[in-house]
Amino acid sequence: MMVLSGMAILVSGCAAGITRTGYQLPPNQNSKDLQRCPIAIQCNAKYGTNDVVVLGSIHAYDTGFSTDCDEAYVLDIFCREACMVGADLINITEEKQPSILTSTCYRAKADFLRFKDREKAKGLLSDPKYAPDLIVDRSEKSGKRTRESIVAGVMAGPLAMIVVWAATDPNATNSGPSSIQGKQGHR
């Protein structure tokens, strides 16, 4: 039964966990139901605290069962929700790229900012690293690495099992070099 539950989770997949602070989604809607709008994304943007209003904050994290959690997926959620609250800028305050050693998910925290002086909001640009084609490229590469690592782990598992099983089999005969040398010593 546990195997079937595990397989169901792997096949169906789960999205990244999202924590929202200062706002909530409209009733009976999820992020994918929201409209996108042109919005700038910057990492640790410098601004005067009197120049902006923080409309909300968002945190994307790995739930432990997340599969829909690459950078493109997460930033799409950030963009849709920032548009919903009327932000001018998504300020990424913390981000971690996927790693097979820690998490296969892109994890990030961001603030949704609105400039008080509407002139300052005009012409905002994203940091170059958030160009859509670069985001998609990083997402595809991390997904490929994750799939290759999973395949390697699955393949290494049976191989390791065979080696351990053969090395610890009490009924195995030892016909290696040490037994040959032992026979030569009894001339």
Main pleated sheet: 5 strands, mixed
User: What are the secondary-structure elements, in order, as H or E?
Assistant: HEEEEEHEEHHH
User: Please, how many domains?
Assistant: 1
- Shape designation: elongated
Helix content: 40-55%
First-last Cα distance = 61 Å
Main sheet strand line-up: 2-4-7-6-3
- The beta-strand count equals 7
| Uncertain residue ranges | 1-12, 178-183
**CA-atom Rg in angstroms:** 26 Å
Count of DSSP-assigned helices: 5
Indicate the proportion of strand residues.
Answer: 15-25%
- In terms of quaternary structure, the protein is single chain
Secondary-structure-based class equals alpha/beta
List the helices and strands and how they pair.
Elements: H1 2-12, E1 14-15, E2 17-21, E3 40-43, E4 52-61, E5 66-68, H2 71-85, E6 89-96, E7 107-115, H3 118-121, H4 132-168, H5 177-184
Parallel strand pairs: 1-5, 3-6
Antiparallel strand pairs: 2-4, 4-7, 6-7
